[in-house]
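Pasting as-is:
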Amino acid sequence: MYNEGMKIDSNVKDSSSLLTMFGKKGFDLFNEPILMGILNVTPDSFSDGGNYVNANQAVLHAKEMLTQGAMIIDIGGESTRPGSKFVSEAEEIARVIPVLKVLKKKMPEMLVSIDTSKSEVARTALDNGADMINDISAGTFDAKMFEVVSSYDVPICLMHTTDVPEKMQDSTEYKNLLEDIYTFLSERIQHAQEIGIKREKIIIDPGVGFGKSVSQNLKIVNNLQYFKELGCPVLVGTSRKSFIGAITGKGVSERGYGTAATVALSVLNGAGILRVHDVADMMDVILVTKAINEESFNEA
């Protein structure tokens, strides 16, 4: 939990000295938080559904986020908002792959993550140059996911959720919120390693907004250091989510300032990757938060 005067903890078990490698690019996600820009190529995502279903529009937006400071672009071809239903593998592939191909052709150096829980979508994307898989189910929706990721030796983000998006908000009861999430992620990390995924390729996400109430989401953000004890970098996705709207009373498009507050606290509490919509604004948040936290700025 954040306390006054707290500094970002750089002593996270033995993994703190390891870089998370995306091909030849490495990031110290325990000490230098980075931004992941959200690129939803879906007609029904809660925030930007329908905005980037055209490949050209999607590519332009990806370029914009890259110039604004995003280190990774996360492409999603299936909405995972509360109440959403699964789409077929074929449909998800048809949405994602054309955009991925154009991005990799025009900007081969761009790091692209694919937000999917389907192993065949992951395999097809990795065959077409994807650099990472972001699985909201931590491999629980598709038993073949870990085998696919292991065979390509790319990073994977394992997220905690209670159920499929259509049902995940039906119950938000836990014996102990933090311990339950920690145990789930610990077990998924172990299973991933047993299948062959290297520990240094694993990123974890406590799953803000996935099967959690407003107060539970706040508790997660306030206690991210707890999950760092698992020895893997922590990804946090709070951008424009409904718990921010519940607190502020603002609609999805007006949750930028609320999101900024969650990003600042997430950085202070140890997040390594911040998954956001508004890259330029959140880059400012990270820079100022880090400068205040470290009480240093090169004025030369």
